[in-house]
Design brief:
The protein is α/β, with parallel strands linked by helices. The protein has a single domain, classed as P-loop containing nucleotide triphosphate hydrolases (Rossmann fold), CATH 3.40.50.300. The chain contains ten helices and five strands; from the N terminus they run H-E-H-E-H-H-E-H-H-E-H-H-H-E-H. Helix 1 runs parallel beside helix 10. The N and C termini lie far apart (49 Å). The relative contact order is 0.22.
Length: 248
Amino acid sequence: MPAIKLSKLSTRAPKGWSKEKTKAKTTALLAELDDLQNLLFAQSKHAVLIVIQGMDASGKDGLIREVLGKLNPQGVWVRSFKAPTPEELSHDFLWRIHKYTPPKGVIQIFNRSHYEDILVTRVHQWCSDKLAVERMKAINDFEDLLVKHNHTHILKFYLHVSPEEQQLRLQERIKDPKKQWKYNEKDFEEAKLWGLYMKMYEDCFTHCNKIPWHIIPADQNWYKEYLVARALHSLLSSLKMQYPGLKK
């Protein structure tokens, strides 16, 4: 797989794409996803893990609400990973992750994930390059374990927002009363480290790509939501699931 250079990839929909038509396609996909998720839950032979990564204000929360939030909450779980607690730090870095992996029949969403331990930790030099390489190998083995031993299907999304769009969204958190609860002055400091974050993400894509990453243009929410809905629809459709019959 050739190395990914994020600065070379567009953060917007291709020219000529219709917002209205794309949103209509997303609505149709979500209707079918509702049925597919019900099948997944009823059959309980497969698990789905959705990993969502991205810079601050890339739209992770909105994506979960507008796409995955339309599905039956009984079978869709969300876990956000923030700074580890003292208890979590006393274990290996995957300990706090593994206990939230999905059981069969469930779609588990990670809003940020185990990848933070080779991203933000490297940017702030809390994790050496040598340790990061060891962690990337552990992540690959961990994901391989989930796939081979629990029929877990993993979708990994990086929400590719431009620095200009990020700044606009961060400013909205100051001005818009409905978004002020999201405001964190540290987000502006982290934004100054954009170049370092891009380097660490690109390294992550290179070394943790056995399960491929979906690089999702995220400047336009309607396009981002369509691409993620389409990817999940494609995965669930490929499983050829059937409802179980009467229990004997």
